[in-house]
Design brief:
The chain is of the alpha+beta class. The protein has a single domain, classed as RNA polymerase, RBP11-like subunit (Gyrase A, domain 2, 2-Layer Sandwich), CATH 3.30.1360. It is built from two helices and four strands, in the order ββαββα. It has a four-stranded antiparallel sheet. α1 crosses α2. The longest helix is centred in the C-terminal third of the chain and has 26 residues. The protein is flat, with a radius of gyration of 14 Å.
Length: 91
């Protein structure tokens, strides 16, 4: 996976994520929308042959877009770890 930041300010970040697709980006988008400071969270894959998603994140200014992304990633990790532990018990 490779992340290229295309645009960044306090309230907005636009970045591309090479090597990932809908699975990770949908999860990240969902997790970002759990944050009350998020005003925009979405992504697009412009062409299926290119397959490189571009994501846009904007906040209301009470936190930076970068901080919102980091917190969302931490919540995703916690959820994934919890699921792994549950799955290991039944496997």
């Amino acid at each position: 996976m490779k992340v290229d930041v295309l645009e960044e300010s306090k309230k907005r970040m636009v970045f591309r994520v090479e090597g990932e697709g809908h699975t990770l980006l949908n999860l990240l988008k969902k997790e970002l929308w759990e944050d009350p400071n998020i005003t925009v969270a979405g992504y697009e894959i412009r062409h299926p042959l290119e397959g490189i998603p571009t994501m846009v994140v904007e906040t209301n200014g009470k936190e930076t877009a970068r901080d919102a992304l980091l917190e969302a990633a931490k919540r995703m990790k916690k959820t994934s770890t919890g699921f792994l532990r549950l799955f290991e018990k039944i496997a």
